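Hi support team,

I've been running sequence recovery on a batch of backbones for a student project. Most finish fine, but this one hangs at about 90% for roughly twenty minutes before it completes. I'm not sure whether the input is malformed or the queue is just slow. I've pasted the structure tokens below so you can try to reproduce it. Let me know if you need the job ID as well.

Thanks,
M.K.
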């Protein structure tokens, strides 16, 4: 099940900035997709646990983690911010190039994106956003499946995501970004049990 479109018009980041804050949307190639208004408790528990582990592990390293809502603008080229037609809010985005960060969020692809799946966003994250992140050069994309207690990892190789690595919520798993981050997946299982 996909997320409902706001309408059938093409939009830009300039328009997006004028929309009410209580209505959350992402723009993908100009199309506005409504985001889930409220996250489920388990979704929040998983995002919180992941963010805590990653942010703590990155202290003193050049990479920095951000948690939604945090606008990530993905330009096609050198267009002005207001003309950008893609802006997403990943659950967690890690940037190693701090030159991409600004007061509005970030302009350019994160090095690592994590999306925690929920029933209303699963197909959107697994298909549309996976293709988007691949196209924009996100080096690593993790899909966390709380219901199945699995993490699916896509790594960019020669401009494309190859066959994903799938791991249960057990042991540890680390991204390819610098900093030696290792996510304790047993703690994710514990966050669901609480």
């Amino acid at each position: 099940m996909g997320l409902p479109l706001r309408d059938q018009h093409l939009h830009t980041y300039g328009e997006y900035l004028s929309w009410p804050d209580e209505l959350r949307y992402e723009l993908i190639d100009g199309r506005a997709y409504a985001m889930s208004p409220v996250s489920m408790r388990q979704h929040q528990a998983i995002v919180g646990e992941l963010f805590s582990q990653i942010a703590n592990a990155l202290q003193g390293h050049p990479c920095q983690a951000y948690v939604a809502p945090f606008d990530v603008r993905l330009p096609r080229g050198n267009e002005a911010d207001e003309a950008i037609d893609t802006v997403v809010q990943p659950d967690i985005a890690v940037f190693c190039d701090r030159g991409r960060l600004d007061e509005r969020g970030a302009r350019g692809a994160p090095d690592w994106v994590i999306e925690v799946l929920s029933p209303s966003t699963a197909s959107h994250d697994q298909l549309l956003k996976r293709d988007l992140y691949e196209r924009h050069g996100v080096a690593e994309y993790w899909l966390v499946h709380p219901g199945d207690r699995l993490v699916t990892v896509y790594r960019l190789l020669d401009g494309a995501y190859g066959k994903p690595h799938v791991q249960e919520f057990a042991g540890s798993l680390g991204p390819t970004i610098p900093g030696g981050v290792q996510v304790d997946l047993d703690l994710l299982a514990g966050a669901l049990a609480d």
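--
Follow-up from support: It reproduced on our side and the slowdown came from queue contention, not your input. The chain has one domain: 39-193. No action needed from you.
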